[in-house]
Amino acid sequence: MCGIIGYIGSDNATPYIIEGLKRLEYRGYDSAGVAVCDGENFTVVKQKGRIANLEEELKNHPVNGTVGIGHTRWATHGEPSDLNSHPHLGKQSKIAVVHNGIIENYKELRAKLSRRGIECVTETDSEVVAQLMEYYYKGDLIEAVIKTVNQLEGSYALGIMCKDEPDKIIAVKKENPLIIGGFDGSGFIASDVPAVLKHTRTIYHLNDKEIATVTRHGVSFQNINREVVSKWPETIEWSFDSAEKGGYEHFMLKEIHEQPKVVKETIGSLMNGMNKDVLDKLCEKTASFNKIIITACGTACYSGSVVKYIFEKICRMPVEVVLASEFRYSDPIVDEKTLVILISQSGETADTIAAMREAKARGAVTFSIVNAVGSTIAKETHYNIYTAAGPEIAVASTKAFSTQLISLYIFCIRFAKSLGKINDSEEQDYYSEISAIPDKITSIIENSDVIKQYAAKCFNSKSIFFIGRNIDYAISMEGSLKLKELAYIHSEAYAGGELKHGTIALIEENTTVVAIGCCKRLFSKTWSNVEQVITRGAKVLYIQCEGGEATESEHVSVANVPDINELFSPSLSVIQLQLFAYYIAANKGCDIDKPRNLAKSVTVE
Ligand code: F6R
What we know:
Layout: E1 3-8, H1 13-24, E2 31-37, E3 42-48, H2 51-60, E4 67-73, E5 88-89, E6 95-103, H3 106-115, H4 127-136, H5 141-149, E7 154-162, E8 165-174, E9 179-182, E10 187-190, E11 202-205, E12 211-215, E13 218-222, E14 234-235, H6 251-257, H7 259-271, H8 274-283, E15 291-296, H9 298-315, E16 319-323, H10 324-327, E17 338-344, H11 350-361, E18 365-370, H12 376-380, E19 383-386, H13 399-419, H14 424-435, H15 437-446, H16 449-458, E20 463-468, H17 471-487, E21 490-495, E22 512-517, H18 523-535, E23 539-545, E24 556-561, H19 570-588
Parallel strand pairs: 15-16, 15-17, 17-18, 18-19, 20-21, 20-22, 22-23, 23-24
Antiparallel strand pairs: 1-4, 1-10, 2-3, 2-4, 5-6, 6-7, 7-8, 8-12, 9-10, 9-11, 11-14, 12-13
The structure holds fructose -6-phosphate (F6R).
């Protein structure tokens, strides 16, 4: 939800800002803007629409200066327009601000400003920040920042410039991510690491209400009481290439292809090193839990829905999967005997953060599986492991999901072992199934013709249903979500047996149904649901493990995945489902990496 970037150095700031914004575009793409300071004045350029529009405008009207801030917007308050785009300026254009988050008390603050003769000119919540800061500015920018943030309710990551103090950028945040990077004569602020990865791997993570002063000579940190805060940088291991398209038409396709590698690396990281140490410690406590709750949003939550089946089967412990957006308002039954697992690619999803804090407040032990190093969820949970997905740029999650599944599988096996539910040989059997997954994913990707051709036939469908039973049902929900978000096709995922209780009324001649049938023991049951929809005119794509019993016919196309223990089959069927959604969206000419209305990191409630 909105991306912010800032550069200070000896070069012209604009190219750095544009390049950073392009890497942050996944966070929002309703409008974009820059403010650059030439040492005396700001020049602000803002454009509705994609960053390409802003870039075009800057080609026609170049802007020069060695310090600047930029923003790409996912609109919340005020329609996407040039005017509502960031950066916002104070009344006398002394202070420029970019903001990611929501200022919940902005109406109150607007009224307060108005009483002092300062009228906001945009419809945004963010403008009050610039106006207030300028109102409070009396020659000490930090003082003005502190006075302002002390009045803000809600969430924010702010990049701030002042033309009277042109040799610095100030960064401050609460509940939204902000990193500081660089220093060899230049410094950056950014919402996320990929925005600066080309220039630096030295990154500082800002904590809530810490203030960073970034100059050409380095960065200093202080808290809201102006006490110095000592921080040590982290060196980011991600390669720059991992944030590039690398010859693929879309980031999503590249990220689908990266899955064998990142899944393998995630397995490795859980068998040795820091992730393993965390699992060792957590598994010492397994006997103290009587319940597990998995909470997350969207795709991340579906990884929990899949693993619920595995956990309950192997560990015989009840697992609830709760949408994070519902968790904190549900008066959850959680205490110190509950293990709450939080799953998040970004580690910054507002609903998941809120669920984490609620769970902690109720005494639960929290364990997170996160991709973004140093993110809020990773830092605030009692136990955290990192997935090795690397930067996921496409808005629709693929490789992060696959690494979440793998992490959960391994955690589940460790958990079962420490509870005494499985013996050494069973544990080893599970591990050998899991270690074969990367090669099996490769083979699906290399043989994607069936899916590609099927997508070419049905991309005009008005509605597509996904059905499956048991763990196949859990993964069908992810398939349906991928299709909706990428191809804008109405879709529903149904437990196969539930269809006849109402939804089957929607099946008509030529309705497309994707059936997942990797649970071989349930073949006859799933197949009877397939027969029911065929009878009503549906065309079915049946995804099954090799050796499955479904056969091709006029009404049924079969896409195989390599044979695997059914518990881990979602790691394979999901690849077919990702490819299916991808090729449907490609046939429809959709904007695959940046689907409409979406943003990758959802940092608002
Ligand atoms: C869908 C998708 C989203 C995210 C969800 C949670 O493809 O990517 O549903 O899974 O917004 O995001 P994280 O994992 O960052 O908490």
